[in-house]
Each structure stands twice: as C-alpha cells, then as structure tokens.
C-alpha cells in the first residue's frame, strides 16, 4: 500500500516538476554552449592578461612616468643646449639629428603623452581599453550567470546521463520507425494482432490519434474480428464489440537499466490503461503506471509464467485521472524505483530484471469492466529514456 501522501495526492505538481526539469536542461545546454563560446574565451584571455603581474607593472609604469625622466626630455634639453651654442648657419650633425627628432610626430606625441595628468595619460592607452572592457564584461548578466552557475554547478547528476530514446509526438503522425501498434509476441510469432484472455476490446492500429502535440490511445465501441488467447485452446478467432490500441518499441528499442519516464494522462472510467515494460518472454513485466477503476498501480511480475511472483502497490482517488503526471522507473542492477512527479512511490530490491526490456503504452477494456463512458482516451505527451554514460 502506498503512503497516505499519494492517497491524498500530496505530491509536487506536474507543471512544477516539468518546468524545473526543462529549466535545468535548458540551463545545462546554455551553460555548455557559452562555455565553448568565443565571448567567454575572449573574456578569459582578457582576465588572464588584466590580472597578471606584468599588466600591473605596465600600468604602474604608465601612471608614474614623468617627462623629465624620459629620453625625449633629455634629447630636448640637449637640443636646446646645442642650439644656444650654435654660431653661424651651419649646424653640426648632432644638432641636425636632434632638430629632426624634435620636429617629428613621434616626439610631439611622446611629449604630449608624458605631460598629461597620470589618469588622463592612462586613459589613452591600450591597457586602459583592455581593463575597461574587462570590467564591463565582468558585469554582464551572461558572464555573471555563467560564473554563478559554475560555482554551484547543478548539473552533476544530469551530465551523468545520456538520452537514448525520446518521442514528443509533435509530428501529427506516428513514427513507425519507433513504434509498432500490437504486442511483440504477436508481431514475432503470428504477424498479427491479438489480445489476452480477459480482454473484450481488440487492439487495432486505427485507434491511435494525435491531438495538440500528444498521442491518444482511444478505446471505443466498434466491431472487429481478431485473435484472442484462450488457455487450453491457444489463439482463437473471435468477434469484438470494442476496439482499442497500443504502442510498443519492441521492434525498435530495448534497454537494460536506466531511467524511463513519460508524461501521461490516464482517462476516467473503467478502461485499464498502462505505461509498462516487457521483455522477449512474457516475464518479467513491469507496470510503471497502471490505472484502472480509480486505482493507480505500480507492479512487478517475474519468474515463470505458470507460477509468477508479483509485487503490487496501489493508491486510490480521482487525483490521478484526467490530468497529466510524470511517471518514472529508475532501474539499476540492484534496484527498481517507481516515482510519480519525482516522488518515490515504490522500491524493489529483490529479483531485479537483468535483461533488456521494451516500452509499451496500452489500454484495454477488460471482460468484467463497464463500457460506460466510452470513447475513452489515454494520452501521452512525451517519453524519454536515459542511460548512464560510460566512464
């Protein structure tokens, strides 16, 4: 039995959980992009130079320089001395050379530079331009955000994982490279759809719809003929008065261990709706989330088909119908953890499966279920699967 907090629906809101997760991923992407940007590289190079001892010494020299201590000043003094001693029009070579220098643009600029006030002089230099740019960049929101984020670095857990499978169902049609619309065992052995002994709705590929960038598995009234599994008889051709649908990655994607999460809306009513995982054989079977008759289940079945072991957890209340929730299975070699909106609902540490499993979404009207409230639609907004990156 699940805790009272789940029974009362005392869990984080789906919007809050999804928004926080989306923001974290967006921040991580922005952080990595900026980390490799020319803008940051330029800032770091500028910072390295501006904060270096060599730069400090250059700045001090510029601020302390005096014209009277300069080579230019001494040349001007020498020039004036020689000019006073000159007799006649003929200039000695030294005087000619100094006169050429004193009248040069180089001397004029040098004297002008060294006779400025220290602060004004510094403001004309390349060093000042670099220091000013550095201080301005240091105050920028983007660089400030980068270094604040780097200091707390909230991405340690996120960067351990890589996304191995994802579908956001935004194309308006089913990606058949990812999904098939019948049971794996029917696909492999019969090349036909079939249903189980306690089903009174038949699985067709026609009951998958798209609306508002979401996929819907619709259970409704409708005639169909197909195979049903009957103990002692095997597969029997039967007529059905109801149809439904399912999605499976059994042909395209299987994974051992990782994080499997989907945002799902379970519809009100008596239709059994499930986000589950299966293997190449009937067992093991994991219900990440199963909703039926006002009860939400997280189940695990393992062992042999004739005498299976089971672990069943459930919670009740209308809180979990007609609204989206994020259902998660975290699977490690030694543990299975079920979560609803990031809150732990169930944990299993024994008989943990060790073979790859595929993903399924399905809806079924069971033999003893009322057909009141049909048509009925289970909706999936997105599905994501992650695995630990190889170290």
Assigned CATH class of the largest domain: Mainly Beta
Bulk shape:
rod-shaped
Provide the residue-averaged pLDDT: 94
Question: How is the CATH topology of the largest domain named?
Answer: Jelly Rolls
Task: Let me know the largest β-sheet.
Answer: 11 strands, mixed
Distance between the termini: 38 Å
Description:
With 391 residues, this protein is of the alpha+beta class. It has two domains: 38-152; 159-388, Sandwich (Jelly Rolls). Helices cover 31% and strands 33% of the residues. It contains eleven helices and 17 strands. Strands 1, 2, 3, 4, 5, 6, 8, 13, 14, 15 and 17 form an eleven-stranded mixed sheet that branches. The protein has a six-stranded antiparallel sheet with strand order 7-16-9-10-11-12, with no helix packed on it. Helix 3 crosses helix 9. The longest helix has 22 residues, at 14-35. It is rod-shaped.
Provide keyphrases for this structure.
391 residues, alpha+beta, eleven-stranded mixed beta sheet, six-stranded antiparallel beta sheet, rod-shaped
């Amino acid at each position: 039995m699940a805790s009272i907090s789940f029974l009362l629906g005392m869990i984080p809101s789906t919007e809050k959980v999804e928004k926080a997760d989306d923001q974290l991923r967006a921040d991580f992407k922005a952080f990595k992009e900026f980390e490799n940007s020319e803008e940051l590289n330029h800032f770091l190079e500028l910072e390295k130079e501006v904060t270096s001892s060599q730069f400090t010494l250059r700045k001090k020299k510029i601020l302390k320089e005096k014209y009277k201590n300069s080579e230019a000043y001494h040349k001007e003094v020498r020039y004036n001395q020689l000019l006073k001693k000159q007799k006649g029009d003929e200039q000695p070579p030294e005087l000619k050379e100094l006169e050429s220098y004193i009248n040069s643009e180089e001397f004029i600029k040098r004297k002008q530079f060294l006779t400025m006030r220290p602060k004004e002089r510094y403001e004309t230099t390349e060093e000042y331009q670099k220091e000013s740019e550095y201080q301005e960049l240091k105050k920028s929101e983007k660089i400030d955000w980068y270094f604040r984020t780097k200091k707390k670095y909230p991405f340690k857990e996120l960067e351990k994982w890589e996304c191995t499978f994802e579908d956001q169902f935004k194309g308006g049609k089913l990606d058949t490279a990812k999904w098939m619309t019948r049971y794996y065992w029917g696909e492999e052995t019969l090349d036909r759809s079939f249903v189980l002994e306690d089903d009174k709705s038949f699985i067709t590929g026609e009951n998958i719809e798209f609306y508002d960038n979401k996929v819907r598995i619709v259970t409704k009234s409708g005639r169909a003929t197909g195979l049903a599994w009957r103990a002692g008889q095997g597969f029997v051709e039967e007529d059905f008065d109801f149809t439904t649908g399912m999605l499976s990655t059994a042909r395209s994607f299987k994974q051992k261990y990782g994080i499997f999460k989907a945002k799902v809306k379970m519809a009100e009513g008596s239709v059994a709706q499930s986000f589950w995982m299966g293997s190449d054989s009937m067992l093991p079977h994991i219900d990440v989330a199963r909703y039926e008759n006002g009860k939400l289940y997280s189940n695990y079945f393992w062992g042999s088909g004739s005498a299976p072991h089971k672990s069943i957890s459930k919670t009740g209340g209308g809180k979990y119908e007609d609204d989206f929730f994020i259902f998660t299975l975290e699977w490690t070699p030694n543990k299975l953890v079920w979560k609803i909106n990031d809150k732990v609902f169930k944990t299993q540490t024994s008989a943990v499966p060790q073979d790859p499993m595929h993903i399924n979404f399905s809806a079924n009207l069971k033999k003893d279920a009322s057909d009141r409230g049909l048509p009925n639609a289970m909706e999936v907004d997105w599905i994501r699967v992650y695995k630990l990156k190889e170290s």
